[in-house]
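DM from R.C. (forwarded with permission)

"hey, sorry to bug you on a friday — could you get me a structure for this? deadline for the figure draft is monday and I only need the backbone to look sensible"
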Amino acid sequence: MTDAKLDVTRLPIRIVADPRRVIARSFVPGAAARIQEIVGRVRTLPDEEVASMLTTLVGDYRQRHRDIRGIFRQNFATATAKLAFDAPLSEERRLLLGAYFTSEYSLESVALFNPSMVLHPDQNGVPRGSVRFIVSLRACGEGHISSIEFRTGLIDAAGALSFDATSRFALTARPEDDTLYDKSSFALKLFEMKSHRPWAEAALGKLDAEFSLTDLKWALEKCRPPGADASFKGFADNVLWLAHSNYQLEFSPDTSLSERVIFPVSDNESRGIEDARFVRFTRPDGRIVFYATYTAYNGVSTLPQLIETTDFRHFKINTLNGRCVQNKGMALFPRKIGDDFVMAGRIDGENIFLLKSDNIHFWNESKLLYAPKQPWEFVQLGNCGSPIETPHGWVLLTHAVGPMRQYWLGALLLDLEDPSRVLGALREPLLVPNADERDGYVPNVLYSCGAMLHEDTLFLPYAVADSYTSVATVSMSELVARLKR
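My reply, with the result:
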C-alpha cells in the first residue's frame, strides 16, 4: 500500500527578477593609450559644456544609484590610476570622465533563484512569537554572471510569512585593502596547488603569522631572482591569485540588506558566484556566526569558497581546500559534531558524501552517505542546504534528478551523533514541479539551497525552473514521522 503524500503547502509568494535593479561598474575601454585619448578629448570641451553634461548625467542617474557622484569619482581614479597628467583636471572634469569610465549592470535580468534561508542576526523589535529572517538569492544577469543578493522578512506568531519591500538601489563593496592572511593556511593551500617551491619557503619566511597583500608583494620582490625568470613569474602569479581569492568586504551601515550585493571580485569567480548555502552556525562557546559555501566559476572551472559573517555587513571570503572539495554543492552542518566540522557534499557529481575536518578551511576526509535508490533519484543526488537539527536526527533536504532531467526535492534523516548513519529516506519526492512550475529558463527544475525551521513548520524557499523563487511549508513532525517510517 502506498503512503499518502505529505501535506506540502505552496505559499502565494513569487520573488521575481527585476531588470531595473542595476549596479554601476568600472568600465575601462582599453589600454592606457586609449584611456589617455578619452581624457584628451574631454579636455577639449569648454567648461560650460562639461558642467552641463555633468548636471544632466547626475540628474539622470542619481535616482538609480545611491551616490552617483561618488561612483564617478571612484571609477575615474580606477581608470586613470597609472596615468600621469601634464596639467591638473578640475573636479567637474574628473567626474565627467568618471561617467565615461562607468557602465551599468543589470543584476537580475536573467533570473533570481536558488535561495537559502536563515534566522536574521538582529531580532530587536520583533513582535512576540514572530521571527525575522534572511533569504539569500542567486541573481543572474548579462553574460550569465551570478552574484548574491538578500531579502528580509517576517514570520508572525500565526506562522504567516511576508517579505519586506526591496530597495530600489543595489550596490557592491570593494575588497578591503588591509585583509590579513593566515600564514599556515596560506602555506597549506600553496602546497595543495603544487606551488610550494623553494621560493615559497623563502617568501613566507619573511612574513609574520598574519600578513597583508602589501606584505606579500614585498616578500615576493625580495625573493625575485635576477633577470627574467618565467618559472618564478608563474609561481608569483599563483601566489597572488590565491591572495586575491581570499578577501573581505564591508558595506556601509546606512544601506539596507536588500541593497547589498556580493558581486564577483577575484579571477576564479569572474563568471559568477553560484548557489550560496547559508547556515546559522553555533560555535562550541555559544557564539553565532553565519557561514555560506558557494561555487566560484571562472568560465572554465569551479572552485568552492566559504563566506563568513556575523552581521551580513562584513563578509570574509576564503577558499575551501582539500581533495574532498573539488565539486559543487557543499553544505555545512550548523554545529560541530564532536571535535569536527561536518559537511554534506557531492564529491563525484552523483552521490551524497559526508565530509569531516578539524579545520573548516581544509577537507580531506569523506565517506559515502547516500546513493540513488528510488527511480526519481537514478541520475544523481545532492543536498538542498545545511541539515536541520531535530530531537530525532538531522533532516537533510536533497535534490534528485530523474527522467527528463527533472529535479525533485527529497529528504534524509541522519543520526544526531553519527550523521553517517542514515535513519530514513523519503520513498516519494517531497516536492515535484506542478503544472505552473514546469516552464522557465531550465524546465522541470525545483532547487533549494537551504530551509529554516520555526516552531514545527519547515519554511522551504525553492527556485522554479532556474527563473524565480517561491516558498513552501511542511510540518516538520510529519516529515520526521514519514522519514522514521
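R.C.: lifesaver. The first strand starts at residue 8 and ends at 10.
me: no worries. The chain has a mean pLDDT of 93.
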